[in-house]
Write a structure and sequence with these properties.
Elements lengths: L2 E5 L3 H13 L2 E6 L12 E4 L5 H10 L2 E4 L6 H10 L7 H6 L2 H10 L7 E4 L2 H11 L3 E5 L9 E4 L4 H9 L5 E5 L5 E9 L5 E3 L3 E6 L2 E7 L5 H17 L4 E9 L5 E7 L9 H4 L4 H9 L13 E7 H9 L7 E5 L10 E8 L3 H10 L8
Parallel strand pairs: 1-2, 1-4, 2-3
Antiparallel strand pairs: 5-8, 6-7, 6-8, 9-10, 9-11, 9-13, 11-12, 12-15, 13-14, 15-17, 16-17
The protein binds adenosine-5'-triphosphate (ATP) and magnesium ion (2 copies).
The site of adenosine-5'-triphosphate has 18 residues, from strand 13 and strand 14.
């Protein structure tokens, strides 16, 4: 059979691999550490850093088609792969989304709103930025941040210096206006090489300490907002020449205005619910897109809630497994249960969101979902 080569060995790679294997493909993975979540289940493991062109060459030799689950591959390596191997996704979108500045510009160019922002190189820029953008605002590193790492919330003028001191030396920064959102949603959009596009049902995302905690589907917003969110995702997919999967994180204000927060050019944590709740899941859809297959139906089968299991929850979840009959448990095969580390997730499906919610709350591990 054909082999799919995945750059990056984390849980997204693992779930891509599980889907691809189910479809009959073999799996090769490139990842710096042995026995990674994806490496554990792959047919071939290439142990190499993401920026190692020799490693990429070895992965390409083992594979018929390549994809990535890890976003921070260097431009040089991404270009090498695009030119010398079969990477249907290409490297343009990957490189655009690696920097919050180029990402925001691309979104704006396609006519979609982002929070007012300013790129920051010096403390002088930051003082000027805060003057223009106001308080509260948030200072972020342009590259490499995830789970709220590399961000500082500016709540008062006294925070300006501290924010700058805590992030300086981490490359270019961006100051964003804090959007007083009513809720956060995300749309997972997939496009294949012949231009077929699908979106998954809009998910409502609850963050705790800037880490995704839960995704509730369908999102509890007006139908117009649902339609607009999906329209934005499709416009971005077309405008950015997407091949594969793109997650679009958005803020929805009280008046139903939508701002795009950020993009992830791959399957996304907020789309894990699709594994049980949709006709085709985001990982299968991604594999279909990069393998030049027709896309599947994204129909929602039942309302669902996905809850992340972080390191600090792991013990309690395992202790309470007897209460988990109605859940689908996914563990990522990570050894060390560090605080804040994504170890797995639970998905509950039901006849209504209320039913899913009361089941999720039964466990008593997390703050109550409301
Ligand atoms: P990840 O990639 O893991 O989603 P990240 O580190 O890239 O996270 P962001 O998505 O930029 O971080 O921010 C994390 C969360 O912080 C957002 O989901 C949102 O809850 C809040 N947040 C970030 N920027 C803003 C903003 N401008 N206005 C309001 N809330 C914000
Ligand atoms: Mg991010
Ligand atoms: Mg985010």
């Amino acid at each position: 059979g054909s082999t799919i080569g995945i750059l990056g060995g984390g849980q997204l790679g693992r779930m891509m691999a599980l889907s691809a294997r189910y479809m009959g493909y073999n799996i090769a993975v490139m990842e710096p550490s042995k026995n990674s979540p994806c490496g554990q289940i792959a047919d071939h493991e290439v142990i190499a850093t993401y920026n190692d062109i020799e490693g990429a060459r070895e992965l390409a030799k083992l594979s018929d088609v390549l994809t990535y689950e890890f976003e921070n591959i260097s431009a040089e390596t991404a270009k090498w792969i695009e030119e010398n191997a079969n990477l249907p996704q290409g490297s343009d979108l990957l490189l655009t989304t690696q920097h919050r500045g180029t990402e925001k510009k691309a979104i704006e160019n396609l006519g979609t709103k982002v929070a007012p922002y300013m790129l920051i190189d010096t403390v002088h820029d930051l003082l000027k930025g805060v003057k223009n953008i106001g308080i509260p605002s948030v200072l972020k590193t342009c590259r490499g941040g995830y789970d709220g790492k590399g961000q500082y919330l500016i709540k008062s003028p006294e925070d300006i210096e501290i924010a700058y001191e805590s992030l300086k030396g981490k490359g270019q920064l961006v100051l964003e206006q804090w959007i007083p959102f009513e809720l956060e949603v995300s749309v997972i959009v997939t496009r294949n090489q012949v231009g077929e596009v699908t979106t998954f049902p809009v998910g409502e995302n609850i963050h705790i300490n800037q880490i995704l905690h839960a995704t509730i589907v369908p999102a509890r917003v007006d139908e117009e907002v649902i339609i607009e969110a999906q329209k934005i995702a499709i416009e971005l997919a077309r405008g950015l020449n997407l091949v594969g999967t793109l997650a679009v994180e958005m803020f929805v204000t009280e008046t139903g205005e939508i701002y795009v927060n950020e993009l992830a050019p791959r399957p996304h944590n907020s789309g894990h619910y699709t594994i049980e709740a949709c006709e085709t899941d985001q990982f299968e859809q991604h594999i279909r897109a990069i393998c030049n297959l027709p896309l599947g139906s994204t129909q929602l089968l039942k309302p669902s809630i996905m809850v992340n299991i972080l390191g600090e929850h792991m013990h309690k979840v395992l202790e309470n497994l007897d209460k988990l009959s109605d859940y689908h448990l996914h563990l990522y095969g990570k050894k060390e249960a560090k605080t804040g580390r994504k170890m797995g997730h639970l998905t509950v499906i039901g006849e209504s969101i209320e039913e899913c919610m009361s089941k999720a709350n039964e466990l008593g591990i997390w703050p109550e979902l409301k």
